[in-house]
Amino acid sequence: MQYLVNVLDGSPAIGGQTFGRATDAEMAAIDAFNDRLRADGHWVFAAGLASPEHATVVDNRDGAGLITDGPYIETREFVAGVWIWDAPDVDVALRLAADASKACNRRLEIRPVL
Amino acid sequence: MVGALVRRFGSLDLAEDAAADAFAIAVERWPREGVPTTPGAWLTTTASRRAIDVLRRESSREGRHREAVMLRDDGEHVPVGIVDDDRLRLFFVCCHPILGRDARVALTLRIIGGLTVAEIARAFLVPEATIGRRITRAKAKIAATGVPWRVPEREELAQRSTAVLDAVFLIFTEGHQVTRAADKDDPIRSPLMAEVIRLGRLLHTLLPDDGEVTGLLALMLLTAARTPARTASPGLRMIDEQDRTRWDHSMAGEGLALMRARIDSGETPGKYQLLAAVNAVHVTAPTAVETDWTQVLALYDQLVIVAPSPVAELNRAVAVAEVHGPQAGLDAVLPLRSVLERYDALHAVQAGLLQRLGNDRAARAAWDRAISLTDNAAVAAAFARRRDELPDR
Lengths: 114, 393
Prior knowledge:
heterodimer; A: alpha+beta; 4-stranded antiparallel β-sheet; two-stranded antiparallel sheet; globular; B: 393 residues; mainly alpha
């Protein structure tokens, strides 16, 4: 199965400021974790995302070609990055997530890819 | 049987439906054609065939390879992981951490305990529709999220077992005092208690150093040991009315030995060890009046800190009444009255205390309220017996 992992940011940090960009130490830990993902065959995709203030919403459902500034939903928390992992089951994904959360120093949301 | 089917077919819904179908076929055929020599094996085989039929019909949705593997797999299963017990494996699926605590318990009671949605709703004091939704959502999430049909790795086992313990205890409680018992002479589900104790022993074998696993097993043994003296006609005998010579003393002894080992460990006790310790105090008292209530109160004082809950507070209030008198007990019950308004035991406790204070009118009303709130006829009969001890109006 594949799992989408949303890296959540914007909530008060544990032990320091983690709002916004990852620190150098966090980046190093994420790189090391990604190397492990590749070595163990879990790697599918990873990306950091620009902040929600740089988001644009497109709605062309009725052909009106509506383009609006800003994120689709206003919340304090936002998705700062994503992973897609390949894992045989959710227990493996949860173990990876425990390490990933530590590496990037943020909360994660795991969702199965259909 | 459901456990074996889930292991083979990997779907709770499919396994449950197939098992229900097999029972329906049995009900129709056995009276006509006679009961097979091995009814259990017959049911499992029939259920497997039903499941295979369903899979064949739905094979466009399922991966053909996976289906082929399952259809071929008619041999003995090979033990995987460290727990070779389908029902226990089912526990770990039902109590998986991706599920909320309430969902875990509801699913375990439904799937493993075999309780109806109505019975579970009663056990949680919440509406039936809530439990129904909870179970449906939990099953859908298990299917969508890829929960493995496997026992957790050893390093995760201790953590995962806490969720299992809570579910086991709730099922035990249901066996100890059936939520909905129409027959007042049959208030206890002994087979359910025996089965849950078996699972408690198995967990204890697997996790001998987990104090809470030991505590829960001890708690169940010390409680079940009193069962032979609980039944009365009519209703149930409360602990202070029981003939203590009729208790199962070997079962009680086993529970006490487990608790002594825990006390020797010197570790801080959790919820189940504290509850077991309360029961150890009761079981070791030669008579009800010789119960060391000071000790019981001290244990409940710890419990409401370790695992605060209105029901724990209510039990503490009972101990308060024994140590400091009925008025102090009533005062301790007071803050619980709104949250436990629909809980029969709250009104029974109040009734007993009002009776002791000589407030017969209020006591009678409280007994009536307790009787109206219980769906267990034997419990209602026990309450009615105490109410009828009151002098006539």
